[in-house]
Every structure is written in C-alpha cells, then in structure tokens.
Amino acid sequence: MSSGSSKMNTPAHWPPGISYLSSPSYTLSVPPHILTEIRGSKPSLHTPPCNLVSIRRITAPNHPAAGQYGLFANRTIPPHSHICDYLGEVHCDDRNSDYDLSLLRTRDGTNVGVDANRKGNEARFVNDYRSIQAKPNAIFKEGRTTSGELRISIWSGASKLRKGEEILVSYGKSWWKARHADVSEEATQSRTPE
Ligand SMILES: C[S@@+](CC[C@H](N)C(=O)[O-])C[C@H]1O[C@@H](n2cnc3c(N)ncnc32)[C@H](O)[C@@H]1O
Q: What are the residue boundaries of the SET domain, all occurrences included (predicted)?
C-alpha cells in the first residue's frame, strides 16, 4: 500500500528503527471502500518535515515522561494554527499501541486508527498535558487536506505557543483508561502463578 517513507530529511533525534513518513501509510487491513472514504480518489500529498517543531529529550526529573522525548515549539506559533499532521499506519485491525489515535468510525461501525508506533512523523512525540501543565496548549483536530484526504493534525489552542514551549495535547480520558487497564492487567498477570 502507498506511503511516503524515507530515510532522507529525518528531523534531529529521529529514533533509529522507526520509519519517517511524509504521508499516511495505509495497511492492508483497510478495505477499499474505507480507503476511498478516507483518502478520496487522489494520491496522498507529501508533507515535508515540520519546521515549527523540534523533537527533544526530556531531562527535567519531575516531568512524568523524563528520559523520553517530547515535541517543542521552534518559534512562536499563533493561536488556532495548524502545526503538523499526525502521520502513521492507517489501520482497521486491533492494536495495543501507545501511539494509536482514532481517525474515524465508519457508518458500518468499523474503527479506523492511525498508529505511529513503527512509522510516523514528528507528531508521534507529542505528550499529554497531565502532570505537566494545568491544561493542554494544543489539540488534535480532524480535517481534510487539499487533496481531500482525512487526517488528524495538531493545532495550537486559544493562546499562542512560545518558542521553546512543550506542545501538550489531551490524549483523552479513554486513552488513559485503556492504559491504566493494561497496567492493572499486567500487574495481575505478574502476580498470578503459572
Ligand atoms: C505518543 S507517545 C509520546 C512520545 C513519547 N514521550 C516518546 O518519547 O516516544 C505516548 C507516551 O508518552 C508518555 N507520556 C506522554 N504524556 C505523558 C504524561 N502526561 N504522563 C506520563 N507519560 C506520558 C507515555 O509513556 C506514553 O505512553
């Protein structure tokens, strides 16, 4: 299936082993009629690396994702501005991935997700605001590109983002609920004798 994947022009701190995408990667789990609903009839547009943001390692010891990476504004970003698209593998199969966002629920009840675990772009490094700031300064928003393709993107919120500020969204209560359920299940399994 088509995707813009390249080793060229990867942003600084891009991790080895993760494919850098410049357009969504559609997996075979997406049936043709859903592919048409999402992408339309035109080929995907190629999105160049985003010069508004940087991927940075988080060194502050009190940050809940210390030692991991986050997404930071490279310059002042005005309110209500498109920052970057969230690119990844578009799929209809079940995934257990911390990088999986819901893109669409079709009329026949199929869930379509975008999973940036193995393939993605800068957007996969955006952290959730919880335990970092009182509220998010950015949001996930769905929209169509000029070619008609449905994508999720990161937009700034009601206030401008300052240069150097960490970009923080809300993953949503369901994301955290699923994560806590996974953690409890792992703990139960590790306590259960074989
Ligand atoms: C989509 S990734 C974000 C990028 C990630 N920090 C990285 O370096 O790859 C989601 C993961 O980031 C971490 N994370 C993001 N926001 C967090 C928060 N507010 N508190 C704790 N961990 C967070 C969790 O480990 C979560 O599974």
A: 51-172
